[in-house]
Amino acid sequence: MLKLNLGSGTHRGCDRIARRHALRLGASGLIGGMTLPRLLELQAKAGTPREAKAKSCIFLFLEGGPPHQDMWDPKPDAPEEIRGPFRAIRTNVPGTIVTDQLPLCANIADKYTILRSHSHQDNGHTTGYHYVMTGYKPNFADGDNPVPNNDFYPSIGSVVSRELGSRGTLPAYINLPHPMAAGGPGFYGAEYAPFVIEADPSQPDFEVKDLSPPSQISAERLGLRRKLLAGVDRLQRQRDQGPANAMSTYYGKAFDLITSPEAKRAFDIQSEPDQVRDNYGRNQLGQCALLARRMVEAGCRFVGVDAPGWDVHFNCFPSLQTDLIPYADRAFSALITDLEQRGLLDETLVVMMGEMGRTPRVNAQAGRDHWSMAQTIIFAGGGTRPGQVIGATDAQAAAPITEPIGVNDLLATLSTLMGIDPTKTYYSPLGRPVPIVDGGKMIQGLV
Given 3-state DSSP classes, what are the helix, strand and coil percentages for the chain, each rounded to the nearest 5? Predict the structure, then answer.
């Protein structure tokens, strides 16, 4: 009797089958009717996760570091230099509190989960961003700001794009309102890069640039140009010209969008009722969240919304109170409510976080500095269990007092919720094995 145990063993070849298992199969299984294609089919099925409940993900990234103690993890009994000027309020979940800057989210706390024990050790903005988006430590110093800055490791959005593809005519992976600093495809290549909407959807003249062909070009001429491009593309593939092939990929995506009525409808945020737009907030983050909902509705798998401005070192509380937290409060609460009303929340995973938290103690300039040792992440939908708090920090919100949740735990959980095997390994152009997530485990209690 043939026994297969393809998931264990320490000495593996590039096909991830232990050598002793290959010998055993060669001696008995393959000759006895177990053909190599059949073996590979069984191996693939063994590693395939259950059908995922989360079919799309909206990733709201509060770039700069949102202060967890001024939002989701208040410390009302701490001294003022720790707790800050905001007071704690009850939510609609008994025993759960947030600050008074989140009244809208407080009213729907039964629809999301607060994770208070996220922690890592990268206090840099660009380096922390890279770490959160890829699960790998960067090879550059903080302050180096190329976009994208992950020239080797793929971002989680590119992983989702490669593993799942699009569910409609829209690209599988989209960034807005500008590129995410570490949102690139790395060695996966241009095919899995995000489609970037570099425009503010809160502006009256918002449009997705170049989505319509020039008025002087007829549909017939556009079709001829596409045929010409296809012919050039075949020649380029035969000659194996990497940069040319990358450009061909971009051109192909552009043609698909230009000729797609569904894509144009998805990007037409002006067609939303005024009341819906007001619910989200007539600001950049609010309208980006609304546009993200429209894009997952149209089949996009991963929408990354980059929301900058949270790096407030000096006199931070007026900015937090007027320009930052209220926008996040309104955008997140409206997005979750809207998705639920449309029957989309169960299949749409929503994550809101930044690259770090902020220091427990208010500094001499009335601000908070970088602090990656403690941070709060908010999860909703996509198979997660709502209305709970996972993890806790100490009395100063300085460090977890429960098991810390790391970056790779976050990415492993996100991947698994979307039906992606986080242990799956790809090989770089130089043959280096790169797992989708290097370690990490599911966040206990989230599902």
Answer: 40, 15, 50
Chain centroid to CA 177? 15
Rounded Cα–Cα distance for residues 7 and 439 (Å) = 15
Which residues lie closer than 8 Å to 198 by C-beta, 6 or more apart? Answer: 176, 177, 178, 179, 209
Continuous H helices in 67-109? 80-83, 103-106
- In the chain, where are the structural domains located? 56-203+272-435
Angle at 285 between CA 138 and CA 192, to 5 degrees: 45
The CATH class of 56-203+272-435 is alpha beta
Task: Give the separation between CA 192 and CA 349, rounded to whole angstroms.
Answer: 20
| Entry pTM | 0.83
pLDDT in tens, the chain (447 residues): 333 333 433 333 333 334 333 333 343 343 344 454 443 444 444 444 457 889 999 999 999 999 999 999 999 999 999 999 999 999 999 999 999 999 999 999 999 999 999 999 999 999 999 999 999 999 999 988 888 999 999 999 999 999 999 898 899 999 999 999 999 999 999 999 999 999 999 999 999 976 765 555 665 665 665 566 566 566 665 665 555 555 555 566 666 677 778 888 999 999 999 999 999 999 999 999 999 999 999 999 999 999 999 999 999 999 999 999 999 999 999 999 999 999 999 999 999 999 999 999 999 999 999 999 999 999 999 999 999 999 999 999 999 999 999 999 999 999 999 999 999 999 999 999 999 999 999 999 999
Please tell me the distance from the alpha carbon of residue 256 to that of residue 260, in angstroms, as a whole number.
6
SS3 347: helix
Structure-token match 């800057």, residue found: 101
